[in-house]
C-alpha cells in the first residue's frame, strides 16, 4: 500500500480497524437487518459513516473530518499502462475557415490571425476532430466499477496529436457534453487550451471563451516557432522549438472539475532534429523514438468509498489530493519495456499534487539514474545527466531518457517521494523509498530485438539570447479572504492587467506572498527563461525555456519574456486548478506596436 | 465477547437516539447524507431545519458573517445587497440567500434582525443563527475553512466567499464575495437547473469502449 503522509498513515490504520470491526460484527452474527435496525446501515445497504466502521467516519454531528475522503483499496500492478492513441486526421466538413462559421455551428471567435499568409506558405492543414462527450464504461482499475467521464473521442486521456513544424494543424473541438456532468461535477462547456502552443489568442482557449453543446470551434495551430517575423526564412527562431505540449479544458471556474473528469490529452511537436526517428544520423538528435518515446499523463484521484465512483470534493477550495495514482488513465499500472533507452515524457496533469519522481530498482535497492532532456517540453541547451529524481509541479512536463539495459527481470517502480498533505503544496519532506507513493511498475521482460540505436547528444539547441528590457512588471501571488489574488485582485476577464507591445521583451517578477502556499504559475503563449530564482541562477534543469514557474513559499522568480507574432488576450494563472478556479488568474493583452 | 459489548467497543459512546433522529433529514436528495439537519433560527425568530427547509431541492447562495465584524462583512453585505437588487424578486422565490453567523453566542435572532434592518436587506434573504457547535459543523461542511489551523480559528480573517449551490443538480461552487456584482450574478445564474435537466437525468450515457470514435 502506498503511503501518502503521516496523516494518511494514521488513516490507513483507521481503515484497517474499520474493516476488522465490520468483519467482527458479521462474524458475531449480526445480520443486515440487525444492523439496519440499529441504524448502522442505510436503506441502500451501505454502512453509515460511523467511527470505527468507516474510515470516512464523522463524529455524531456529521462533522467533516480534517482528512480528505478516502478511496476503496485497489491492488497495484494489475493492468498494463496503455499508450496514448495517436490521433488520426479526418476531412472536416464544412472545411475550416478564417472567419468563424457560426452558420454551421461554430462558436463565435475572432478571425484566425495570419490565416491567408500561413495557408499561402504552408498549404493545407492536417485536420482532426476531437469530440468532448460524457462516456461511460471507462475502466480505471479492474477492482473499481466502470466510470462515467468526460472524454475526447471516447478516450481518457484524450488522443495524442503528432504534429510537425512546417505543417499546420487544425483541431475541431466539438462539444457533445451535457451541461451538468454525472454526479453533479464537470461543467459541459469547454474552451480548450493547447498548453505551451505558440498559438494566436482565438485558438488558445481563453477561459471566458467557453461554448456549450452542440457547438464546435476550430483551433488553428500553425506550428510556427516564436520569432516568425524576426526569422522569416526559417519560419521562426529555431531556438524557440517546442516539443512536448498538452491540451486541456480551461472553462472559467470549472477547469479543475473538467480536467479531473477527463478533459486532458497530449500533443507532440517534431522537428528536423527531434524528428521521431532514433536512427537518423547527426545533426539529428537520435533520441529514442516510436515505441521507445512514451508519453505518460500523471493524475491523482479520489474514488467514493461506498460506490467506487470518481469523487470530486465540491467543498474543498484549497486544492484536491487524490490517494489513487493514475498513469495514462489507469491506477498503478505496470508497463513492459525492453532492456534499452526510453524517452519518457512525464506530464503532471493535476489537479493539485506536486511530484518528485524516482525510479527505484528494488532488486538492487538503488535509484536508477536518468538524463533530464527537456523541461516544459522544451529541450534544454544540454541534457542534465545522472539525475536520480526530478520534481514536477502541476502542468509541468519533464522529458527524461532512462536506460533499462542490464535490468531484465528487475523489480522497478516509478515512485513519488514528495510528501504533500493538502492543497497548499508539498511539505518539502522527501519520503524514504519504503514509504514512497508508487505510480508505475516497469517490467523489463520484453526482449531486445535489435541493438539500441538511440543517443543522448551532448547538446541540443542553445537558449535564445536575452536582451535589455524596457518594462518590468511585478506580480504578487497572494491569499486574501480565503481566495487567491494576483496583486490583490481576483480574475476578471474584462479587465486587462497588462498591455504588452508586440515585438518587445519584458522582465516579469513573480513573488509569492501567500504564506504557506505554493503556486505553479503558468503564462500562456510565449516561453520564458528564468533569470533568477530567489536571486540565484535556477538549477540546471530549469535553465531552458519554460511556461510554468514553480513559485515556492516566499520565493521570487525573475523571468525574461518576448511577445511576438500574434496579438490578443492571454491569461496568466496558478495551475493548481483549484486556485485557478478561485480566481488566481489575470488577463494580459498583446497589441500591435 | 457479547454482541452488545462488541458494539459498544466498536462504536464508542453513541449519541442519544433522539438527537440522531432529530438530525436525520426527512427529505431525500443528493446532499441529505452530507448536510446535517440542524435546527437553526432565522432573524425573524422562525425555527428552520438546515437540510429539509433550507437546502433540499433549492438553488442557494450562502455566506458567513457576524454582526460586529469590522473587516470584510460590511462591504460584503453591501455587495450582496447589490446582487439582490440585480436578481430582483427571485430571492426567496427560486434563489435563496442565507447568511450564517460565525458568532452565534452574540448574534441572537434579534441582533440579526437589527442588522438586517440597519443594512436595508430586502425580504427573501435569511440570516441564521443556531447552536455554536452546529454552526461550526456547517462552516466546515460548506468549506469555509483554512488549512492553517491558526488562521482557521481567527474569525476576524474568515473566508470571504459565497457558496453557490443547487441541491437538485448537486452543483456547487464558491466565489469571492467582494467580486463585482455582475460577476456574482452571472455565477449564481450559471447554477440554475437547466430546462431539460429532469428529463435528461435518467438517461444513461451511451457506453463506449475506450478509444471508440464518437
The radius of gyration computed from the alpha-carbon positions of chain B, rounded to a whole number of angstroms, is 20 Å
SSE succession of chain B:
HHEEHEHEHEHHEEHH
Reading side by side through the largest sheet of chain B, how are the strands ordered?
2-1-5-4-3-6-7
Shape assignment of chain B: globular
- The proportion of residues in beta strands of chain A is 35-45%
Query: Structural class from helices and strands of chain B?
Result: alpha/beta
Mean pLDDT of chain B: 86
Low-confidence stretches of chain A at least 5 residues in length (pLDDT < 50)?
Answer: 1-7, 42-67
Largest sheet properties of chain B: 7 strands, mixed
Mean pLDDT of chain A: 91
Give the uncertain stretches of chain B in residue-range form.
6-15, 207-214
**Morphology call of chain A:** globular
Give the beta-strand count of chain A: 37
Oligomer: heterodimer
- Separation of the first and last Cα atoms of chain B: 59 Å
Name the pair of protein chains with the most residues at their interface, and give those residue counts. Answer: A-B, 64 and 65 residues
Q: What is the tally of helical segments of chain B?
A: 9
Q: Assign a percent range to the helix content of chain B.
A: 25-40%
Quick rundown:
The complex is a heterodimer of chains A (593) and B (214). Chain A is built from 5 helices and 37 strands. Chain A is mainly beta and 593 residues long.
